Amino acid sequence: MTTTAAGPTAGPTAAPDTAVVSFEDVSKSYGDVRAVEGLTLSLHPGETVALLGPNGAGKSSTLDLLLGLRHPDSGRVRLFGTSPREAVVAGRIGAMLQSGGLMEDVTVAELVGLVVSLHPRPYPVGEVLARAGVTQIADRMVNKLSGGQEQRVRFALATAGANDLIVLDEPTTGMDVTARQAFWATMREQADAGRTVLFATHYLEEADAIADRVLVLHKGRLLADGTAAEIKARAGARHVSFELADAADAAPLRELPLLTSLEITGGRVRIQSRDADETVRAVYALGLRPRDLEVTALGLEQAFVAITEAEEARTA
Ligand SMILES: Nc1ncnc2c1ncn2[C@@H]1O[C@H](COP(=O)(O)OP(=O)(O)OP(=O)(O)O)[C@@H](O)[C@H]1O
């Protein structure tokens, strides 16, 4: 498990200029706020990469820098060995951002048609509409769409042509389950075709299921970079849970070292521990007789919380 992009799990090694994306010691502040700090990373063809971080961690700022919508105060951002602007103009990037309204006085088909007509390597309009699940609403005015429908239209615009890099900021917010599944199926196809997909999300289960690489940002810095499994392993903690015949017996457990949380509901004890083996030994050493003992790894969401909270405590 690495904490920077320079380590062994940072993806295939490649010279920065052959990478799809390279950030070289990039920093960006807004007044006193350090939004991105010393960010160095490379993304490679065919990778599906999730960008995670608490509110204000710098995810949107990172994507804005990547797309050339903002410029770094220091450091350098390169896409395909060129500037972000050149890569965007060459039609190599498809983006789906949170901000920015859609053009209003047009139908869905007209808007998609316009974006397709401007793309250097366009797909047929019908195919773009169908892929995003908006064929049924193609004649609807854009300003009459629901939030979820708007999001599908943004998805259509981001996949209007053959892009080499697809950048998505909170792409599935507002989408229903069907739209969400169709969306990720399409993104998988894109990655399988060798494209790079980078998405920022607060849905950690999506990152766990979809991404083959996870970046965790915290206060503008890259805190972790690895597969979801590596991030979970790095958090180190495990869940230990068991039944006790008498819940009152659980009181001494509160004194155990290594616990990050302890919850007792009915006769069931649920512990989060930094060392599950040691905790289980300690439970027996207390003379308890646990039944139905389970030890499980943390999910990505819990690992993410553990890693970012540890960093908060370290930097407080
Ligand atoms: N235009 C701006 N002017 C001033 N401060 C800004 C601006 N844009 C972002 N910030 C600040 O920069 C920091 C990083 O913000 P950013 O939007 O990149 O984070 P984020 O990880 O995308 O957050 P969220 O998950 O809430 O969308 C935050 O402290 C935010 O308040």
From TrEMBL:
Give compartment(s).
Cell membrane
Q: Which PROSITE patterns match?
A: ABC_TRANSPORTER_2
Q: What is the lineage of its organism?
A: Bacteria, Bacillati, Actinomycetota, Actinomycetes, Kitasatosporales
Pfam families per the record? Answer: ABC_tran
Descriptive protein name: ABC transporter ATP-binding protein
GO terms assigned for molecular function: ATP binding
Organism field: Streptomyces halstedii
SUPFAM superfamilies linked:
P-loop containing nucleoside triphosphate hydrolases
Domain (ABC transporter) spans 21-244
Where does it primarily localize?
membrane
Q: Which InterPro entries match?
A: AAA+_ATPase, ABC_transporter-like_ATP-bd, ABC_transporter_ATP-binding, P-loop_NTPase
What is the membrane topology here?
Peripheral membrane protein
Keywords tagged on the record: Antibiotic resistance, ATP-binding, Nucleotide-binding, Transport
Report the CDD domains cross-referenced here.
Answer: ABC_DR_subfamily_A
Q: Which domain of life is it from?
A: Bacteria
> Is Lyase set as a keyword in this record?
no
